[in-house]
Write a structure and sequence with these properties.
Helices cover about 0% and strands about 55% of the residues. The protein has no helices and 16 strands. Strand 1 and strand 2 (about 15-20) form a beta hairpin. The chain is elongated, with a radius of gyration of 19 Å. The model has no long low-confidence stretch (mean pLDDT about 85).
């Protein structure tokens, strides 16, 4: 989130608050907003417990001040180095958590960290046979605790990493918009296996 303060001690203060998903951030690092690509340098790092620091590592919650204003909304990722990929469709390995099978006719709410979007399940390439632990042809008749590989079409692009690279930006949950219950938890895959 963005923190704006205009006091005599902090005129026109703008801080960008959030939790570090992975890696380290240092004063002087160049960062960019994933999606827009707007760039800035880290001018300061503040924490609630430690005050002003020069370096912070995951999973610390921090507030960054930057050398210039950037357009950031709740849920946007600030990145140093390599950007996560922006996708409108994604392969995901899910564990189905609901009693009822997936409904391919509705758009589920997808929550990735704090960011929410809508997504339709396009289908399943395979399910994991829990007895043999081998893939078998998939369909929408998943039961509770079944594991399957699915494709999702997102209503708006999300910045994602493969789960093997980053658990925070590589995972998501699916929420049924009718009941507001979590129906699946998933890991984003590099490509369908």
């Amino acid at each position: 989130g963005v923190i704006r303060v205009d006091t005599p001690e902090h005129p026109e203060y703008r801080g960008y608050a959030g939790r570090i998903a992975s890696g380290t951030v240092r004063v002087g690092d160049e960062i960019a907003v994933a999606g827009s690509g707007m760039r800035a340098r880290v001018r300061g790092i503040q924490t609630y417990d430690l005050g002003e620091i020069t370096e912070a590592r995951a999973p610390l919650s921090i507030c960054l001040t930057l050398d210039r204003e950037v357009d950031v909304s709740r849920g946007d990722l600030l990145c140093g180095g390599e950007f996560p990929r922006n996708v409108s469709e994604v392969a995901i390995r899910i564990c189905w958590l609901a009693n009822d099978p997936p409904d391919l006719s509705i758009a589920y709410t997808v929550q990735q960290h704090v960011r929410k979007s809508k997504a339709k399940i396009l289908g399943f390439s395979h399910q994991l046979d829990m007895t043999s632990l081998r893939p078998r042809a998939g369909d929408a008749a998943l039961a509770m605790n079944d594991i399957a590989q699915a494709r999702l079409r997102l209503s708006q692009p999300l910045s994602v990493d493969d789960y093997s690279e980053n658990h925070t930006t590589g995972s998501m949950i699916l929420i049924d918009p009718r009941t507001h219950r979590t129906v699946a938890a998933g890991m984003i895959l590099a490509e369908e296996e």
